[in-house]
Amino acid sequence: MDAASVKGSALLANQAHQKGKATDRSYAKKLTLAILLTVSGFLIAILGNLLIPQIAEGIKTPTYELGALTVDLNGFYRLVLSGIILLYLLLGFRAFFDEKYRAKYLRQARFRFVMGLVLLAYDICGTKLRITPQPFFPGPAQILETFLIDTQQIYTNLLYSLRLFSAVFFSGVVLGVSTGILIGWFPKAYYWIYPVLRLTGVIPAVAWMPFALTMLPAPFWAATFLIAICSWFPVASQTAFGIKSTPRTQFEAARTLGAKTPYLVFRVAVPNAMPQIFTGITTACASSFTCLVMAEMMGQPGGLGYYINVVKVWAAYYKVFATILVMAILFSLILAVLGAVRAYVLRWQKGQLV
Amino acid sequence: MSEKELEIRDVSRIYTDSGNAQANGVEALQHVNLDVYEGEFVSIIGPSGCGKTTLLRLIGGLDLPQAGEILLHGQAITGPDPSRGYIFQQGGLFPFMTVEGNVASGLKARHLYGKKKQDVQKYIDLVGLTGFEKAYPHEISGGMAQRVAIARALINEPELLLLDEPMGALDSFTRADLQEKLLEIRQKSGATMILVTHDVDEAIYLSDRLVIMTPRPGRISEILKIDLPHPRDRGSEAFSLLRSSILEKFHLASAHE
Ligand SMILES: Nc1ncnc2c1ncn2[C@@H]1O[C@H](COP(=O)(O)OP(=O)(O)O)[C@@H](O)[C@H]1O
Ligand SMILES: [Mg+2]
What we know:
The structure holds two protein chains of two kinds.
Chain A: H1 3-51, E1 64-66, E2 69-71, H2 73-97, H3 99-128, H4 140-149, H5 151-185, H6 187-202, H7 209-215, H8 219-244, H9 248-256, H10 261-297, H11 304-313, H12 317-345
Antiparallel strand pairs in A: 1-2
Chain B: E1 4-15, E2 26-37, E3 41-45, H1 52-60, E4 67-72, E5 75-76, E6 84-87, H2 99-108, H3 113-116, H4 119-126, H5 142-154, E7 160-164, H6 172-189, E8 192-197, H7 200-206, E9 209-214, E10 219-225, H8 237-255
Parallel strand pairs in B: 3-8, 3-9, 6-7, 7-8
Antiparallel strand pairs in B: 1-2, 1-4, 4-5, 9-10
Helix pairs in contact in B: 2-4, 2-5, 4-5, 7-8
The structure holds adenosine-5'-diphosphate (ADP) and magnesium ion (MG).
């Protein structure tokens, strides 16, 4: 190798080094831009709400006490938007330190910007001009006003739903896992119970509704029964499947270590079945939401589904939308918690090549 | 001469219970006879499919012979027992437990964990895995995984350690390393060891006696005593002489069929 080429390659290496440094530094710039882009959409939505006058008639703007603040529907809407901006600023701050999250934040910036613009357009069409069919499609500020008008009702019904869901979902899962272990482990149980499980699995849970409502002593028990049924099936069948697919070597290894049946079931088969059990639980969770709302709409004395039923009678569609919003947030949160539990329990799979 | 520990008397095993029709009627073992003495290191060597795993599973109590009997100190083996440690060819570790958890499972399965907790670290150190206690099986190499399996079996203080090609899938450096470890463990624990392998060098390097098997039907064709003193030199003349004579026997044995 001659001197010139040595020098050349050294130069190249140096350049590459600088480039690496540059990308290191430039992510800060890129991220700052992404944060600005993310919040500017919502900022525009706030400004639009503030500056564009109310053109169409028929929007009442009573004021509400909100702690120390007194707001009308527009004020509250802007407050919520500010909350969203604050949230995204905090998340952007996190993205500075969390490399994995940063990529996600950068990716979502454009979408969030457009979301702000969509809210602006919706605010103008729904509230300011009222050119969307009324009262079926109220503007975002009107929808949010529900939380000022019916604060207490939403809160109590939310708690009712949450209580019903958690009590019943948990019992459904426990029941499902136990049945799953039973039929996954004992061939006899498989023979006798599995067909029943298959059959109830294909029946839509709502079909049980009339039966549940008439046969069970209280609407609460009817709902309990329904949700238990729709969480039981997927959990039980997935658990059984997971247990049956445990590699034979695992059991043999445990037996050479002196393990007896309880150890084989609970320390070998069940952990091996955990990935499938969680698949079942996630499915069960989704179908339990359906059952929950359905049950509440058909005879529960409370809950978000019940609330929708009540406000629908008064054609208060903005309240219906507000409830749907609450459901979306609630169910997403529940799924997120479930996801976190799953990630923790299945941490032994992390990074595994499957 | 030390005491007779294991007696394999005229054992046969034909697979008739297999779901696979083609495999049905395979005579995996035919009239196998073997005695193993206390503290001995015996290697079983032979080509793939000659019934090595089948024989080891019978000794481990994971399978039962159709004819003949296997006696441990004069008692017939009826099932697996922690006094006979078993290292599987692969997939024996619990994937959902850490290295530490796997080693501890040997105690937990027998409800001895409360009393002998401190043994876990002792055996992890013994197999040279200090620092990897919190790793999961998929995060460590094949050689390390086998060492975890060995530690897990040893924690039950077995009198007999059955190893089914524990070094089959390892590269030659890891393999040599694990071989030394086995000799060291044998020294420390005094356990009798039965090692299945298809590596002639490995068998000569480690064992007191070498059992040569031939396939279809699986039979013991010859048992050789290896009298070389430890540590053995793989490059020595005696070693290479043994190697070539064994390889020759192999050829004869398979040509016989
Ligand atoms: N569970 C089984 N069912 C049917 N045939 C089997 C089974 N296990 C092993 N065999 C057959 O028995 C013979 C010996 O197998 P094995 O003991 O695993 O041999 P090795 O360990 O020496 O490779 C092979 O022909 C194999 O196909
Ligand atoms: Mg084998």
